[in-house]
Amino acid sequence: MKKLLALTTLSAALVGALPASAADSPKPIVATVSAREAAEAAAAAVAEVPAAHATDAKPAAKPAKPTSAMFDALGALGSELKDAFGNAKGNPIPYLDKLVAHQYSDQTRQKLTKVFGDKQPMTLQRNTASDGTITYVLNAPAFSYLDANATTIAWSELGMILATDKAGLSMNSQGSWRSFRVADKAMSMTISDISLEGKQRRTSQNIWLGKVGVGIGKIDVSVADAPGAVLEGLSFSSKAVRKGTAIDIAYDSQIKTVKVAGEQLDDIRFAMRMLNIDMRALEKMTDSLANAEKSGKTKEQNLAALMAGFKVFGKSVAARGSALEIDDFSVGLHANRAVVKGRVALLPSTDADFASRAKMVNKIVARLQIRVPVAMVTDVASIVMTKQAEAKGETTSPDAIAQTAQSITDVVVGKMLNGGFAKLDNGVLVSLIEFKAGKLTFNGKEVVLPKAPAKPAAAEAPPPDAGSGD
What we know:
18-stranded antiparallel beta sheet, 11 helices
């Protein structure tokens, strides 16, 4: 697991060192990791090795973890660019022009030279057409490197084109990256056929409308002593559409197939929309995110800036009746498909509500419908039984596994139906989950939620000594 984390975070470190096509594009509210943080986490994971056996009676000292020159270089590069350009809010032209002319600090340059020699890890050139269109061409040459900890890091040439008008109000982006690979003796990860395409326009509130999409042809993870995994046909997109003073933002993530341990999941999708979002409130929240990521501040200051933005955004969501629509959260297995759809919203709230977690919970209104074919429950039970038998080195006949899987299905389905948690609709388990006024129901049946532990009462003062009565 630590190795997989290392490989994944190295990818994040490299990507984090590259400029974004539109830094203020609408994106899901997620925790962000800087290139340096990703590099440091990955270096720590890759470098972790068992302690050598001691040759005397003294306890063996814990060996120093070997540093990774590649991680260190990419982390320094990404950190320096982030400190220099921040989130590049507003007109992108001044920021991109600064990036074209940027000279790395001596410390960063030394780290880059140690890995890349006299070659530049990436270049950015500006071209201006006769019609005023400004084009920035980014290039990262193909490269391969064997790190000190026997980790091979290699990638093909990366190319990206960013085109904007002379006012910096539009941004068309296009990029491709054929492959990125990290490998050591224990495992390897290869990401193939990466693509980027976007067409956006900036509002007066510095919110980018339009669509941006990223595609990945294949992710192949191989492990020496465990089953690997192959993911194919990945795509991630966001689309922002203006509606008066509000915007609707749609996110769509899809994976065509996931193959792991001899099984395959098909057409995994998570599509959702954030509706009726106030642009000014969104702008304030993105400002708070930018302020929370600035260096030189304490964690408490960053958290305060972050929460201030979320509070403004939350009030706007509640006042406008904004909502999160889950259009399709689904996965396929053996020709069957489980699907979740629903809606989550906030009722109008006051400052007092936002100051109380319990009151805010009561303001949440959610409705989810879950549909799971009974045949899919049987398939999952069969897979689990087969894997358990293989782990024990047992040989079990297909008929025996099928019989056991059916028995498990009968028990699970029976409990769901008898408990009122689901209904049966033509071979499909259907659950309607609703949350309103702090109450959770399944198909109309209330489920009592655990209450928060009561605060201990203050200790009473002992009664005064009555004395002996003399």
